[in-house]
Specification:
It comes from Apilactobacillus apinorum. This protein is of the alpha/beta class. The protein contains 16 helices and 23 strands. The strands form three sheets. A ten-stranded antiparallel β-sheet has the order 4-5-6-7-8-9-10-11-12-13, with helices on one face. A seven-stranded parallel β-sheet has the order 3-2-1-14-15-16-17, with helices on both faces. The protein has a six-stranded parallel β-sheet with strand order 20-19-18-21-22-23, with helices on both faces. A hairpin with a 2-residue loop joins strand 11 and strand 12. The longest helix has 15 residues. The chain is globular. The two termini are about 15 Å apart.
Length: about 500
């Protein structure tokens, strides 16, 4: 019997981390090789099918829990345009446009509701907020990207959400969500699944409902690969004959330099896996052989497998560049040590006056972005650094095709999807030599440089060498293209085939 693979995640977001990108990358890889696989997500997300379009993921490659119970798992077939929607009776109500993104609904001069247009659409309904007689939001209709009302939200008189109803596309309520005061917050307290196969089910939490959903869609021919440690307890406790694996995308210890130490402190979110649920998984998958060996030493009774968590085809039309652009690609979070990267720019400018650093990724918070801007101002490098935010597809290509060096200063990685992707553009790379990814991707003085962690003088000098020395750049550019073969889809899928046949 053919196996079905389910890659379990919380969501596909507007701004995704390497974990979501890895799951999407894997889904494409499996489809390319004719293996039945789906990304399975828990969170309610009316934008889900819009988001996956951006990344070239087909609708049948993702299965969301709410979609499943709404019996609406397919692609977009309808556009719910405000101007033509039956939701607003044009005889009794007037649509008063505010701008391209919103309109008010009015009756006899009184404002009844506000309609927000679905992002990145032209005139399609996103949500409708209904006002009470005092102008407070009393309820909200949430529309799915695919053109149907997906949820009604009713507000509590004291503020916060009181009750939610989830609908199928025909307007039938399929899930009720009740909220109650828990301490000083109003939180969901019950999920009621209505008339599902003729029965009504009650669940205390969304994770309980998610577990029920996963049990419904899995059997002995299912392989579940959980990408999110936050969902480890859910997957571990499933009452299913499916085979279960946990994928760890990052280094497992708080201090990456101690990852090979059996007594090193784990990240807090991994203690449930290793202390409580270890025996409920058939194995743990990690991106590198070195991490696999370290975990086997620490947990000799466990089964560990190493499979690269990303695969990239070599980009077309790669050409050497003469710019002095260096780029950081990835999450712009404190744990990525971005502030240290900024500090090398003044030193690099002394040798390469027109050096320019692009920092491309989504930011941990507005406060953190402000902190980085303050450092940039303090170092007087405002004209040498661009904070580019999150880019995908053509916008990202444009930056990377014009980059001479890819840089990274994080102090711990699982593999580093960013460095793997950089090879596919033929980019020489400079990164700290930390556990685990950089030394798997960069061969020192071949396709880039590995630098002692926190040695910013050496980091700056290595960047300068690639920027200023054409022979070094040309050699490393060619070797990056060669190294990319290691991480191409055929070679990464060969690792999966070994896993399939274990």
């Amino acid at each position: 019997m053919t196996k079905q693979y389910l890659f379990v995640n919380e969501n596909i977001f507007t701004f995704n981390s390497g974990t979501e990108f890895s799951a999407m990358n894997r889904a494409k890889l499996f489809k390319r090789n004719g293996v039945d696989a789906k990304i399975v997500t828990r969170n309610f997300n009316p934008s889900l099918h819009q988001e996956i379009e951006k990344y070239g993921i087909d609708d049948d490659q993702v299965l969301n829990m709410y979609d499943y119970f709404q019996n609406q798992t397919g692609k977009k077939t309808h556009h719910e345009y405000l101007r033509y929607s039956s939701v607003v009776d044009k005889h009794d109500y007037k649509i008063n446009g505010v701008d391209n993104n919103s309109s008010y609904i009015e009756r006899l001069g009184q404002r009844i509701a506000k309609v927000s247009i679905f992002p990145l659409t032209i005139g399609e309904i996103g949500n409708i907020e209904y006002y009470d007689n005092f102008g407070n939001i009393a309820s909200q209709d949430v529309f799915d990207y695919r053109g149907f009302k997906s949820k009604e939200i009713y507000m509590h008189p004291a503020g916060g959400i009181g009750h939610e109803l989830v609908f199928d596309k025909n307007g039938k309520v399929v899930i009720e969500i009740t909220h109650m005061n828990v301490g000083d917050r109003v939180l969901p307290s019950m999920y009621k699944l209505l008339d599902y196969k003729g029965k009504t089910y009650r669940f205390n939490t969304e994770d309980d409902l998610f577990a029920f959903f996963l049990e419904e869609i899995s059997d002995e021919n299912t392989v579940i690969i959980n990408d999110r440690p936050s969902l480890t307890p859910v997957i571990a406790n499933l009452n299913t004959d499916a085979t279960k694996y946990q994928y760890l995308h990052n280094v497992h210890t708080e201090n990456a330099s101690e990852a090979g130490n059996n007594s090193a402190v784990l990240f807090n979110n991994l203690y449930p896996l290793f202390d409580e649920f270890f025996g409920k998984f058939a194995g743990i998958i990690v991106p590198t052989d070195k991490q696999r060996k370290d975990l086997e030493k620490r947990y000799p009774m466990g089964k560990f497998y190493s499979i690269f968590d990303s695969a990239f085809d070599l980009k077309a039309n790669i050409k050497p560049v003469n710019t002095h652009n260096i780029t950081y690609l990835g999450r712009v979070f404190r744990d990525k040590n971005i502030s240290e990267l900024l500090t090398i720019i003044p030193a690099v400018q002394q040798q390469v006056p027109d050096v320019h650093l692009n920092i491309m990724g989504y930011f941990e918070s507005a406060d953190y972005k402000n902190e980085l801007e303050a450092i940039i101002k303090q170092l007087k490098i405002e004209n040498a650094v661009s904070l580019l935010d999150y880019k995908i597809e053509a916008e990202k290509d444009n930056i990377l095709y014009n980059t001479r060096v890819l840089v990274q200063t994080s102090l711990g990685e699982g593999l580093s999807m960013s460095l793997v992707e950089g090879l596919s553009y033929g980019l020489p790379e400079v990164a700290y030599d930390v556990n685990y990814g950089p030394n798997e991707i960069i061969e020192n003085n071949v396709n880039g440089f590995l630098v002692e962690p926190k040695n910013i003088t050496s980091l700056a000098n290595r960047v300068i060498e690639i920027l200023n020395n054409q022979d070094t750049y040309d050699r490393m550019h060619d070797q990056a293209i060669t190294k990319s073969i290691k991480f191409n889809p055929d070679n990464v899928f060969a690792q999966w085939e070994t896993f399939f046949n274990k």
